[in-house]
Amino acid sequence: VAHPMTEASVRALVAGGTGAVGQHIVGELLRNKAVAQVTLIGRREAPLAPEYADMSGSKKLTHRVVDFENLPKDVFEGQDVVFCALGTTRKDAGSAEAFRKIDFTYVDNIAASAQAAGVKHFSYVSSVGASSSSMFLYMKTKGQVEEAIQSRGFPHVTIARPGLLDRGEAKRFVEKVAGWFTYAIPVRTVARGLIQNYFDTLAGPNIAAVTLMTNHDLIAASDKLGK
């Protein structure tokens, strides 16, 4: 059983919905019959990924252009779950400071706003190796924001720690080279795994407050979600 719901009732908000994983979170939510509404927040309105072009006219989808430094409170009100796939790299951001603003400050702002609005489940796309004690900026920042999210007191927090990502045609050069030597998890699998994990938390009271999902967990949950 993919999920315990028989009619559309879930209201989900997605931040970072233009990125590799985020695009699939948006698309898979729109296709899911248990989801009633998907709110996509970002600095600009963007089209859906080509794989989900058939859902572009969906009445479920609402775009909200926002300033991540000053988020509107109303956009989080009434949401059941927030999926945050916001993130960049130091190279793309241009500096360590700009990277931290996106990967820590903006993500923490989203978590704070969601918690204040009473959102019960926060799902975040992190990375394998994330640790606040890491010597490396990327892993250290991911680890620090994981801890910040967990400190917010959500009833449920899910943190995905995928390894190398398979972005299909959008692969970065380093990912293409690394992919010759190690397994790369499809970005769609990460997205579907997080969505199924949300439905799993609705199934009963004996669910851990914090769930960390590795590649293995994400693959198993994605398979459970069904087609």
Keyword list:
227 residues; alpha/beta; seven-stranded parallel sheet; 7 helices
Tell me about this structure:
- The chain is an alpha/beta fold.
- It contains seven helices and nine strands.
- The chain has helices at 20-31, 90-93, 96-116, 137-150, 173-179, 187-201, 215-225, and strands spanning 10-15, 35-42, 61-65, 81-84, 121-125, 156-160, 165-166, 185-186, 210-213.
- Strand 1 (10-15), helix 1 (20-31) and strand 2 form a beta-alpha-beta unit.
- Helix 1 packs across helix 6 (187-201), helix 3 packs parallel to helix 4 and helix 6 crosses helix 7.
Distance between the termini: 12 Å
Mean pLDDT: 90
Structural category is alpha/beta
How many separate helices? 7
Shape: globular
Question: Unreliable segments (pLDDT under 50, ≥5 consecutive)?
Answer: none
How do the helices and strands follow one another from N- to C-terminus?
EHEEEHHEHEEHEHEH
> Strand arrangement, largest sheet?
3-2-1-4-5-6-9
Provide a brief overview of the structure.
By secondary structure, the chain is α/β, with parallel strands linked by helices. The protein is built from 7 helices and 9 strands.
Question: How are the secondary structure elements laid out?
Answer:
Blueprint: E1 10-15, H1 20-31, E2 35-42, E3 61-65, E4 81-84, H2 90-93, H3 96-116, E5 121-125, H4 137-150, E6 156-160, E7 165-166, H5 173-179, E8 185-186, H6 187-201, E9 210-213, H7 215-225
